Amino acid sequence: MKLHRQLLTAAVAAALFVPAAHAEVAIDVIGGSEITFEGLVQADGNWFDNDVADLNGGDAANGKDSEFELRRAELVLKGKGPGNVEWVVGYDAKADKFLDTNIKYKLGGNSSHFIQLGQYKQPNSLEELSSTKNNDFISKAAVTNTYAVARRLGGAWGYGQDNWSVTASAFGRELTRNLAHGSGYGARGTFAPINEKGQVLHFGLSYVAYDTDADTLRVRARPNADLATVRLIDSGNMVDTDNVTTLGVEAMYIGGPFKAQGEYYSSKAKRMANDNYTSDGFYVSGLWNITGETWGYKGGVPGTGLPDNPASGMWQLGARYDHMDLNDGNLSANPVAGRPPIVDGVLGGKMDIWTVGVNYYWRSNTKFALNYVMVDSQKYSSSVRGFVNDDPNILEARLQFFW
């Protein structure tokens, strides 16, 4: 913990010397490599209006209905050169884990044609691949957090032009010990039939397959609150799972200051002693830049620009609807009187979530975000021998500093 505080203090001190118009610190040119330093610090607060479950843990009568936490403290070194080589080493001092840590070689000097080795985000989610500091909402969609394979060690090849891209990857475990395991592969293709400044129409398709760690899989989701310790929907441990395959479909439209996007995931777990388990979910969202700014687009992902007027900043309003279904089974009456119903398959529950939010970007380094989350969930409970509805509401706030 002491090392984490020292790293974070040094990072913030360095960032204070960054000119307001820049988002990175130039270090030096060493061995033909232009080295820069970037960082991201996020502090979150969640206030829970609990319904049935105590979302922040412990006794439901403990009187504690809020959580405050340093969410991220990301420190990143990047290098360009020598030649067509680019590299990055990232570390999150809060989570004590490595971030993107890889080397990329641009074939023919083309940034859209590359090979990549190391740890990087796998090519299977529009929201996951977008920059964390510019997420539309404080928490990523429940389906993204559940189904998207994030950073893993591996090798990737990518190629594309301004309006299309193809990326293929083979991967193994996460770089940091005792985190995600399971070797696999994935691919993502994107196509933008409209790609002009301030107007983009994007479509994407992805597929990922990987082995489960120790033949065990558990699919569950928080109610779009990163500080919640309880998952309202949960498949439970499936200890006979061999592998998982996930198909993702994505679409996005940018029209001036408006952006709409959505993703659908269908995931299938191959089980050895039971029927295969299938779950799915989707989200759709809309964002409006009140101050008139638009988004960029490169490599199949959107990019949020800086405020047109740094002194007054950039305001955004957004809304999102999430749906997840972790049920893949049936419930039938027990022929023996007085005994609980018979569950055939997995009844992990269903969850629908509305999120409304406002973001404020000030100058080039600061962001404030406020979200209100409304949850409608239902899950089978063996203790009550029936389905239980749990419909909490959550207020979320974030202060973010980046460079």
TrEMBL record:
InterPro entries: Porin_dom_sf (IPR023614), Porin_O/P (IPR010870). Keywords: Signal. It comes from the Bacteria. The keyword Hydrolase does not apply. It holds the Pfam family Porin_O_P. Residues 1-23 form the signal peptide. This is OprO/OprP family phosphate-selective porin. It comes from Stenotrophomonas lacuserhaii.
